[in-house]
């Protein structure tokens, strides 16, 4: 059963702004990246999954349930970490996370125990009795993650979890999210516009743009090798490009880096490069097969005439 399943899902605000348009996808278990530029519709999809919005058209199912008709059941199985700072500054972190556990249905004693345990997992155990208003941005992000995790959900929805963090803080948060998905056995959907971060921790990706699906696949298939070779020499790149073109291969030069297209006989192309480098007495710095990148999905996208959020 997919974690999230949508069929021709559409969402418009005030009949003017299109957030999602005819979106059909299945999000399977694992650590899944929901990627797209700011305004692509990622947060709208999360709010629909939580039952906070009613779709304009189509349908959405979360863990097999309708978020509108079965909202209480859905939210009991989900943990949600919002993007923006929405924590009560005057509350102690341990009290807040305990309260969120109680809201999720845990008895008082179990809620306190789970709160302490969860704050330990996110690295705030020693600071758990401090007021949230005195926390750094990174610590506040960890509190938001703790409250999403405290009731042991089946699925975590994390909206821009590294928002506002410095590079060290981002790495620590990503490591924590990856550990939750791999060691705790909880499926995670990570919503982000930072593609490099998503590629680091996710097993599969869902890419959307302007409310429409670009691609949904495993990370390995999205970043598989293409039919291009990258050749870099210390000097003599122009002479090498001429020699390869004379040999009948498609070659492009950018300073000292050549991009060579492989043909039906890959071995012949490799042999031609080897012989040309040797004949010209060049120093070969790099020879590697180029990989697709997730960012390639968003390049050269035509501008949409309709407004999106």
From TrEMBL:
It comes from the Bacteria. GO terms for molecular function: ATP binding; ATP hydrolysis activity. Keywords: ATP-binding, Nucleotide-binding, Transport. CDD domains: ABC_DR_subfamily_A. The keyword Zinc does not apply. InterPro entries: AAA+_ATPase, ABC_transporter-like_ATP-bd, P-loop_NTPase. Residues 4-235 form the ABC transporter domain. Belongs to the ABC transporter superfamily. This is ABC-2 type transport system ATP-binding protein.
């Amino acid at each position: 059963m997919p974690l999230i399943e949508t069929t021709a899902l559409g969402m418009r605000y005030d009949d003017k702004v299109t957030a999602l348009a005819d979106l059909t996808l299945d999000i399977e278990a694992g650590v899944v990246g929901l990627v797209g530029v700011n305004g692509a519709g990622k947060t709208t999809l999360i709010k629909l999954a939580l039952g906070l919005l009613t779709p304009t058209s189509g349908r959405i199912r979360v863990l097999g349930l309708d978020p509108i008709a079965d909202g209480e059941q859905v939210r009991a199985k989900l943990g949600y970490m919002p993007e923006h700072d929405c924590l009560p500054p005057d509350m102690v972190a341990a009290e807040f996370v305990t309260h969120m556990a109680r809201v999720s249905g845990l008895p008082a004693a179990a809620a306190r125990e789970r709160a302490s345990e969860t704050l330990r997992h996110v690295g705030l155990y020693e600071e758990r009795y401090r007021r949230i208003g005195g926390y750094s941005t990174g610590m506040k992000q960890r509190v938001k993650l703790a409250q999403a995790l405290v009731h042991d959900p089946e699925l975590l929805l994390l909206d821009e979890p590294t928002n506002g963090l410095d590079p060290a803080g981002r790495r620590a948060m990503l490591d924590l999210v990856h550990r939750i998905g791999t060691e705790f056995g909880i499926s995670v959907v990570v919503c982000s516009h930072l593609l490099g971060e998503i590629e680091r921790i996710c097993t599969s990706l869902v890419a959307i743009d302007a409310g429409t699906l670009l691609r949904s696949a495993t990370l390995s298939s999205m970043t598989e090798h293409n039919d291009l070779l990258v050749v870099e020499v210390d000097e003599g790149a122009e002479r090498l490009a001429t020699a390869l073109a004379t040999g009948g291969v498609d070659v492009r030069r950018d300073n000292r880096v050549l991009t060579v297209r492989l043909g039906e006989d890959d071995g012949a192309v490799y042999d031609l490069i080897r012989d040309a480098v040797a004949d010209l007495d060049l120093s070969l710095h790099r020879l590697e097969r180029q990989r697709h990148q997730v960012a390639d999905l968003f390049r050269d996208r035509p501008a949409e005439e309709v407004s999106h959020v």
